[in-house]
Amino acid sequence: MKRAAVMTIGDEILSGRVLDTNGAAIASRLRSLGFEVTYHLTCADSVEEIVRSLRFCAERADAVVTTGGLGPTEDDVTHEAVASFAGVGLELHGAILDQIRVRFESRGLHMPASNERSAKLPAGGEVIANDHGTAPGCALAVGDLLVVSLPGVPRELLPMLEEGVVPLLRARFELGGVTRIRVLKTFGLTESRLGMIVERLPRPTGTLHVGYRPTFPEIHLALTAAGRDDDDVARVLDEFEATLRTALPTQIWGGEGDSFASVIGAALAARQWRLATAESCTGGLVAKLVTDAAGSSGWFERGYTTYSNESKVALLGVPADVLAPDGPGAVSERCAAAMADGARRAAGVDVAISTTGVAGPSGGSLAKPVGTVWVGLATPTETTARAYRFPGERGWVRTLAAYAALERLRRLLLGLAEHEPFAAREDRR
Amino acid sequence: MKRAAVMTIGDEILSGRVLDTNGAAIASRLRSLGFEVTYHLTCADSVEEIVRSLRFCAERADAVVTTGGLGPTEDDVTHEAVASFAGVGLELHGAILDQIRVRFESRGLHMPASNERSAKLPAGGEVIANDHGTAPGCALAVGDLLVVSLPGVPRELLPMLEEGVVPLLRARFELGGVTRIRVLKTFGLTESRLGMIVERLPRPTGTLHVGYRPTFPEIHLALTAAGRDDDDVARVLDEFEATLRTALPTQIWGGEGDSFASVIGAALAARQWRLATAESCTGGLVAKLVTDAAGSSGWFERGYTTYSNESKVALLGVPADVLAPDGPGAVSERCAAAMADGARRAAGVDVAISTTGVAGPSGGSLAKPVGTVWVGLATPTETTARAYRFPGERGWVRTLAAYAALERLRRLLLGLAEHEPFAAREDRR
Questions:
Q1: B361 prior amide bond cis, ω within 30
Q2: Taking CB atoms and an 8 Å cutoff, what residues of chain A touch B308?
Q3: DSSP assignment, residue B371?
Q4: How far, in Å, CA of A198 to CA of A188, rounded?
Q5: Contact in structure between B306 and B287 (CB atoms under 8 Å)
Q6: What is this model's ipTM?
Q7: Residue contact B429–A296, C-beta within 8 A
Q8: Where is B172: in which H helix or E strand?
Q9: Fewest CB within 10 A of the end CB: N or C in chain B?
């Protein structure tokens, strides 16, 4: 079995200020290719430390993949360190520099001279193109070892890994067979509960790895299968996907390329329904999530962010007695229902969702503690509201409230039962 | 400055299946104590690999803190490896074993024999109590080096770090001197341009490190200073902050604890102004950013997400001729201005901002390519709109458009000149 090590380079990661997600992504992909991952080492933006770390990893690896330290500032020294480790010089790639210059000029900017740094690669290295940023990567053979250097920005790194590095590793290490990843996206279960369910399911024969990718509040399952050929791999993936869908009939809502809102949008479009939103505690987040989906103008009409009580009355027709000092107040079943119903009527649409709650940190009371949220849903036939109690700080409460509103709508559109008021995932690792 | 390394032990982390959050938490705490963190190394549950990793870290550290591998299963070998590294044996702590047994029995369970493993610590080690789980930690002096072993479960590790390890490190290393980090948040310059400006500035005498933390579209500068005492460190930080503020008079908008919206909120509150938003292409994102700030109800009245043309007319009074087939259309100066003005009037507030543009991926034309955005600003005295051309995909365009709208407002409130239509930062981390 070939062995690989991952190196993350950067003071901001080392000091714990920024959480490193690249290391896990690279390790996971290397493993799916059939590598044993031996180390993941994070070190400082220092030539000496990078060289020392490369030497340490090299004794237990056929390939070392580094991330970070390829940018234009003076603390970006990865290429310099790799060259020093290999005992070669740096060479300026004119073509790369031209590309970087064009990227700047296409935005009407003059390229700062410091960007030359990104175009100086270890001599003899193979360029790994970066279609999403300025700094390309590099693959350099050092004796039997292959050192691959990638940038630290995940948006750049991940496509480069897939499109540039994987084919290169396959070719160099004669990795036969194929590996495919299939993503299934879930919502509504904690990671530990999801893990308990998934780990007890029967696995198909064949090589299959299940990864968990929490992107709060969603958890994505990444099924990685390896086999002789595409048919072989597709069989394993199809079989386990069917098992998963049976075990998680309502929690799995989409796959790669889907967003929670785009799936809902497709269901709205299928009914030729248009949507409006009425938000208090989520303050625009529901509309933002909805309009993140390209083409959402096809099914999204408008959104009301009625933050003040006055706006709830003026725009949505919430009865003044609901908001009066002796009424149930803005955080109540009646208010949430009136908001959804009012938005549906005022916007002249088929369906509307609403949120109103206490996002915190202040504003909580014994009867309505921080995290209390009402979610309204108005359809052509009925208007209802449900109460939730979300854990966590303001950002968590708002995100969970927005998802709860979208989830009510999704379940309505797909004919699923209402979901249980869920709790946030507890942490586990 | 004392140096420390962090080691994460566990196959599940190494393979990328589980994201390691402990490493960053430990590093961050060590750094705040005044340690320079030299490495974060993840290795397998293997005595040989742990020993090799300890040797590697030991050459650059006065303390090594490990996490993971203290549990009851046979792949939990950290204590064994630390003992081997130190050249000592393992000794069974009867008191620990009794505590573990009591924990099991209090839940009506019989303790599996495998838990003996957790009670066998390197001889001469100091026990670090674990109040939230079964496996205690251990601190062992190996010559001048201190090796601290903690469990991998964050819920157990974090209190042990704070209550058990921090006092121990303070005592052993007589941690004098202080290290402080000051954050200054910027917007409007690319990272390379910001870096060029900052790197040319004169530095105060003393120990000062400048880090860049891009959190798109903001870039935060983290100034880390170390010195004898608080006064010493404050002098270095104050001096360089003043230098930075002179060099970046409009780009620095806040510090730790500030958000772009909270700074704007404070300026609105100072004038006793209330804000409304009118959004098309940003689809609720401006309102979402505004209401991310706790207490925003004090200065934010309401938001209109007028995605359809009908809603622009009905809610904001955009003249129908603007949106007519032969008019300038929704993405135009007139529409942006009418939206801002209409929102200001309809909401009965002092100031309103608006966005309307082509976020993509479709909808672009030769005259109005994807990325074209108009931002309106209506005040008690005038209403204006400005055009921008943002690079990147839908999410980028929307985020940059939302920030441009907030930036117009911020500059108005602070009496700064309008900003140059900026380009996105190029990426790196």
A1: yes
A2: 297, 301-302
A3: T
A4: 14
A5: no
A6: 0.75
A7: no
A8: helix B166-173
A9: N
